[in-house]
């Protein structure tokens, strides 16, 4: 029999090595480099196969062999079975599968029952309300799981990853076994494929489990003494890695409030992290208003605490600007494979505080709607950052007590609704902020809601809610970075779709963005502004759907006379959005006190055409040189969305501040992004009623100041009116098929009314 | 034309005879998984069609593209599938192996161009065998 081809072997090895990296337990860099070189070397296939197996052998904990009945027998590999108490370690598994069985691998061990819901990324117990399982977890000292993808491809040899947890320290004897659940040849009506595999394997007379003397390093709770520069206690995002790049706590399994999709965890001053003795790199940050603090520390027998002083570079609240993220979620998307529940307000407030946000709008949406809506109260809340399921967490080694901080009252949550996964979602996802009632009249199920957006918006506005569109740019890209442009988009996605109908009818207040290409996001906003509408734009994250990093990746700063706090915090913030100055972006640059002729009002009427003096205070911070590229990448590339790094001019530390009049850049000035406040000023000629804003793309954009000349409304672009009119046609073409037949007549009438308004405004425009 | 789909029930496993199932969640994120359906053995030099069931919970319209890193000896015919916004659509692509062999190919599915999936969930690896 000829040797199997080598390409699938390398493909599976590369996947397993990447998985170890993703789990925060990477192979040594030298081994990864050698693997990469070997994959592309000119050696014979046989020699490459031999060298690959030799290279990876020291990291293989478990050798698995699957016979023709699909029974997996295990023997210890060459990797030292070293674990860490109350933590997870991940290793390679080599699977010999000569009969090419396609099956799903599961890990078993002695002494642990199947009480963890492995289908859930939240690592919740399978029966959420049955905490009686906790003693069983506490009594089990070893847990194991095969990392996804756990399916055997059917190739003769492939590599997988196994993660092991130990509760205890010292030398512990234990066994590991693997079951291969074959869905393709499953004939039992009473047992699942996994149950059949376990049943058959357990009745084997031969030894099928591998035995180990696990060497489990003791871990202790180390206190994190996190401080603001002024000494106050606070919540922050803390990342701890050892010299091999392993993350603590391991990402192989994290319990809320720690998320497996984060490198960091959120901890308050005085809270704990479990660490074995060793040397660690610790980084700490509290959102983009802070520079990352990096330190190296040794944890030994005498270590009780790690002192960390945060490094704040800008304080917008000190200037009267208060941050908010109008779009975060407590369930769905990255949180869970079983997204119907999500996390509690106590976890969400921890994340919001850890990013230094004043407000986080936790939006209930389809996958988690019926569970999460219980947290809606119609008021802003600022609960203690307690742990979810403390018994369960204690059983996993999280025995620390949540600590209050000096800054807790400066962050609040408001539970509201995103109309996503509802019948009208084809028309764009609505964000409804400041609701007093979260159930559309006459509905008991999501399916009962209207199948287009305008009725929902009008119902929400009757509650004095601020309403608008989420992730505005999705489906609105037209293949150009030109801004403004006049290409009608296809409206293929879930961006600001029906906004072109709702704004002229007075039913939509804003759109949210700061996530994608500016041309896709800003074009529709600029056109609405240029025909005289006062539409707002907000920065959002859509955490953890669009962005996983944390709340406040996209954020909005609103100028208020006093901090938003108490049950009416969101209402105060909304009032500020409607009446006062605000800006949005990534929080790495800020525009304070934007003024026309010294006036910071949103409306600045002019008696006659002529020049105006535009001024503002700008602050931005970039590291002196661009960050080094991540491992495996030739050059640093900033994240996909908005990030000040993408505004860096060449390799300098400067960025460009632009003044925009009716969508067109009319002046600009470079500023050094060194964190200092700098005054910018421009003389801008105003020939007609106009809107004016400042921006640093892709980092910050202000709301416009409206300049009506001689009392005439803004009618600055005939082409914008035409674009909006034509967009309504395109929208109807693409979306009307999703509107229920009994709602189509009303929808068509609204579309017609919107187009009539655009035609009227087009006729009133004096310039093209 | 009205193709109003149930708004809930998203994110669950897809009942299909196709080897691959693509789901687009309400936030337009793409998730692809191998179903239980077998791929079968290819004949060298002949095109083999692989069916894909698409469940679209986001009403997304426009192209659903499939991308793959090149693998020696493997030819891929990956037509862009046009999403109509309907809740369920059937798509397909073709594969051909030049000679008797086994290859491991990684496929990434993308809707809306810029939007990928959650984590690596929009990516799947397939073992293709020709005898």
Automatic annotation (TrEMBL), chain A:
Per the UniProt record, the lineage of the source organism begins with: Bacteria, Bacillati, Actinomycetota, Actinomycetes, Propionibacteriales
Q: What is this protein called?
A: Carboxypeptidase regulatory-like domain-containing protein
UniProtKB/TrEMBL annotation, chain B:
Highest taxon of the source? Bacteria
Protein name according to UniProt: Uncharacterized protein
Organism lineage string: Bacteria, Bacillati, Actinomycetota, Actinomycetes, Propionibacteriales
